[in-house]
Automatic annotation (TrEMBL):
A biological process term (GO) from this entry: regulation of autophagy
Keywords, sorted A to Z: Membrane, Transmembrane, Transmembrane helix
Membrane spanning residue stretches: 38-56
Originating species: Dissostichus eleginoides
Lineage: superkingdom: Eukaryota
InterPro entries for this protein: CISD1/2, FeS-contain_mitoNEET_N
Entry GO MF terms: 2 iron, 2 sulfur cluster binding
Protein's name according to its UniProt entry: CDGSH iron-sulfur domain containing protein 2
Source lineage: Eukaryota, Metazoa, Chordata, Craniata, Vertebrata
Length: 108
């Protein structure tokens, strides 16, 4: 019963629907379509747009998950900006390098 219904849709109803569509023979013919003719074309255009999107979707750049783009995963997460202040008098050398390694949680 189910296969008969699917067969009827594909063999009878779909071709009848496609025959009734107001497809112009030239590109300029689309400009002369009426609103009701555009409405009759709308389901077909929607399906074609969906198929086009599904076809190019694997080739679109993938969005990174926010977790992957974060550098600071653990240190002072409650603060929107992590800032450490050091008094300049506490530094003994003129050449000082200050670096925080977010992953190992060390400050050097």
């Amino acid at each position: 019963m189910v296969l008969e219904s699917i067969s009827r849709i594909i063999k009878v109803q779909l071709p009848a629907y496609l025959k009734r569509l107001p497809l112009p023979e030239t590109i300029g013919g689309f400009a002369r379509l009426t609103v009701s003719e555009w409405l009759r074309l709308l389901p077909l255009l929607g399906i074609l747009a969906l198929l086009g999107y599904l076809t190019i979707r694997p080739f679109l750049p993938k969005k990174k998950k926010q977790r992957d783009s974060l550098i600071n995963l653990k240190i002072q997460k409650e603060n929107p900006k992590v800032v450490n202040e050091i008094d300049i008098e506490d530094l003994n050398s003129a050449n000082v390098c200050y670096c925080r390694c977010w992953r190992s949680k060390t400050v050097s």
